[in-house]
Design a protein that fits this description.
globular, alpha/beta, six-stranded mixed sheet
Length: 288
C-alpha cells in the first residue's frame, strides 16, 4: 500500500507540475515583435501619428533620408521607410510604396533678419548633403538665388564649403562629395540637428521644409521666408540639376515625400497612412 500511495502522490505531483507549467505558458504572452521605421526629421509628425495608429510595437529611428537609404542598401532594412525625397526609392528593392505629399523649401532666420539678403551676411546652418537631401537642395537654392538676384555668393560657397558648381548649358552639377564647411557655414548630419543650432543661437538662419516648420512651430519665434518659385522645389526645377555625392550622382526633382515598405508589417503601416491628415503638417496630399 505504501508503495502504491507513493506512486499516486508522485503521479499527482507530476500532473500538478505539468498543469502549472501549461498555465504559465498560456498566461505569459510572448514578447511582441518590434516593427522598425526609418523616418526623416521632416516627417516626424506623420511618424508620430503612425505609432499611435498601429496595433504593434513601432520603433521610429530618425535619420536623414540619404543616410537612411544608404543603411538600407547596406543591408540594414527597416519594415518601413518614410523619406522626404522620392528620387531615393530608385535604388531600393522595396515591396510597396505610397506618396505622402509634396512640399516646399523655406528659409528660416532669427528675429532681426529681413528677407533673402540674410544669405549674404548671416551664419547659416546646413544639413550634410551626403546624408540629407535638404542639404543639397539648400546648396542648389543658394546658387540659383545668388545668380538670379546677383548676390555674388558662388565663389564664397565654393571656397567656404569645398564644393563646386559646374554649369553646362542649361544644366547645373554640384559636386559635394568632399564638402567641408568653414567661415559662416555650419553643417550637421540632418535637419533636426541643424534646427537645434538655430534654437541654441549658434547660427542665424537655416533652410527647412514647410512640414518641418509646421511641426516645430517655428513661425512663432522665427522669421520664415518663402523662397522664389525657381528655388522652392515644390515643382520639378526648370533647369536640370545633378548632385555628385560621396556615394554617386543623383538628379534633383521636386520635393515629394514617399513611404516604402520592405515587409508585411511595413505594408500594414503603409495602409495606415491614408488615415493621417498630412495637410496639417504642411504637405499637399499626393495621389498614387
Amino acid at each position: 500500500m505504501g508503495k502504491i500511495s507513493s506512486l499516486v502522490i508522485f503521479a499527482l505531483a507530476a500532473a500538478l507540475t505539468l498543469l502549472v507549467v501549461g498555465a504559465s505558458l498560456v498566461l505569459v504572452p510572448s514578447p511582441r515583435k518590434t516593427v522598425l521605421v526609418y523616418s526623416a526629421p521632416t516627417l516626424a509628425g506623420v511618424s508620430d501619428e503612425l505609432v499611435k495608429l498601429a496595433d504593434m510595437n513601432v520603433d521610429v529611428q530618425v535619420h536623414g533620408s540619404v543616410f537612411a537609404a544608404n543603411l538600407i542598401k547596406a543591408g540594414r532594412r527597416p519594415d518601413l521607410f518614410l523619406s522626404v525625397d522620392v528620387e531615393l526609392k530608385k535604388s531600393l528593392a522595396y515591396r510597396a510604396e505610397k506618396t505622402i505629399g509634396t512640399y516646399g523649401l523655406v528659409f528660416v532666420c532669427r528675429q532681426g533678419f529681413n528677407g533673402l539678403d540674410a544669405l549674404v551676411t548671416s551664419r547659416i546652418g546646413l544639413a550634410d548633403p551626403n546624408q540629407a537631401p535638404i542639404g543639397y537642395r539648400a546648396l542648389a537654392a543658394m546658387y540659383l538665388i545668388s545668380e538670379r538676384e546677383k548676390l555674388g555668393l558662388k565663389e564664397e560657397l565654393e571656397r567656404s564649403l569645398n564644393i563646386r558648381y559646374i554649369v553646362d548649358g542649361s544644366s547645373l552639377k554640384i559636386v559635394v562629395s568632399n564638402i567641408s564647411p568653414s567661415g559662416r557655414f555650419y553643417m550637421r548630419p540632418n535637419l533636426d540637428i541643424v534646427a537645434s543650432l538655430l534654437e541654441a543661437g549658434a547660427v542665424d538662419c537655416i533652410f527647412a521644409h514647410t512640414p518641418f516648420v509646421v511641426t516645430r512651430n517655428f513661425g512663432k519665434d522665427y522669421k520664415v521666408f518663402e523662397l522664389p518659385e525657381y528655388a522652392r522645389f515644390d515643382k520639378t526645377p526648370s533647369v536640370e540639376i545633378v548632385v555628385e555625392l560621396a556615394t554617386g550622382e543623383i538628379k534633383v526633382v521636386k520635393l515629394e515625400a514617399i513611404a516604402v515598405s520592405f515587409s508585411e508589417d511595413g505594408d500594414r503601416l503603409l495602409r495606415l497612412l491614408d488615415r493621417i491628415d498630412v495637410g496639417k503638417y504642411g504637405f499637399v496630399r499626393g495621389v498614387n
